[in-house]
Amino acid sequence: MQNRTPDDNETPPGSALIDEVYRILSGIEEDIQQLELHAPREKVDIFIAPNLIDAYELLDEFEFENRFGLSTNDLSKYQRMQGEVSRDVLLQFAHRAISLLREFEGTIVRETSIQYPESANEQNLEPEKSPAPPYVDILPVAWVSINRRSNAQLIGKISELLDEAITLAKSTNLPPEQRALSDIERAQLITLLDTALNLLKSPLVEKGLLERLKSAAGKGAEAVVSKKTELALGYGLGRIVELLGDFLMSLGD
Fold first, then answer.
1. pTM of full prediction above 0.70
2. Are 191 and 98 in contact (CB under 8 A)?
């Protein structure tokens, strides 16, 4: 398959590509639920998680093939489109794929200058003129095991704050000009929060994704302070930054 990078003349266009990214992201959440029904270390067919196959094909096409975090043996099964892989490996790949899809989304937004929401013109509203949020590179893959016994209370509190922040970020009814975050920033934050919430349920966590969430949550809290709106969300994001810092320290180098 010939690798390519998105540009303004690409078919499908940037908006269709982002729709495809969102479709796969939503589907991967269903794949994760299905995988969690199986026993740890159980071998399962790769087609039990069809959205992961879609993620592999899309990301492979756009030069992410060296960043899946899969062994050569497991990667070859996706290249051949057949074979069985450990359920735990697929769960790790699912969370990694979510990270890479969010990174790819940022690339599409930057290179095609997509404005969201698309309904702005239909409502005769002037599209938001604030610049797209600065892109943050995902740190190198660093999967580490969690000591759930010693971190149980911290994980529980972080999970509670993540769940609350997702609800607050999704449920704002403020007009666009009064919101602390742009639509793109909000969508990116919600996906990071949701991914981290699922990640904390797994036996392993990816430190790079948690570092990225910590950075995004910090910027979200700063935006709330600057605009003096969505204060509950800002407080929650601030607490997430604080507790994620403690959690990352507990994981070591």
1. no
2. yes
Q: Whose CA is closest to 59, among 35, 9, 24, 13? A: 24
Do residue 171 and residue 225 come from a single domain? yes
- Give the 3-state secondary structure of residue 85: strand
Q: Provide the number of structural domains found in the chain.
A: 2
Domain of 47 in residue numbering reads as 14-115
Q: How many CA atoms lie within 13 A of 69 on its CB side?
A: 22
In a domain, 6, yes or no: no
Q: Give 20-84 as a 3 state SS string.
A: HHHHHHHHHHHHHHHHCCCCCCCEEEHHHCHHHHHHHHHHHHCCCHHHCCCCHHHHHHHHHCCCE
CATH number, domain containing residue 208 = 1.20.1270
Last residue of a domain, one of 72, 95, 115: 115
**Among candidate residues 92, 115, 138, the one where a domain is terminated:** 115
Q: How many whole angstroms separate alpha carbon 188 and alpha carbon 195? A: 11
CA nearest 40: which of 89, 91, 88? 88
Are residues 158 and 76 both part of a single domain?
no
In a domain, 5, yes or no: no
Instruction: Tell me if 231 sits within 8 A of 224, measured CB to CB.
Output: yes
Is residue 229 domain-resident?
yes
pLDDT tens across the length of the chain (253 residues): 444 444 444 444 467 787 888 889 888 988 888 888 888 888 999 888 998 988 888 888 887 877 888 888 888 888 888 889 999 889 888 888 888 888 887 777 766 644 444 433 434 444 444 444 433 444 445 677 777 778 888 888 988 999 888 888 888 888 888 888 888 888 888 888 888 888 788 777 778 888 888 888 888 888 888 888 888 888 889 999 999 888 888 876 5
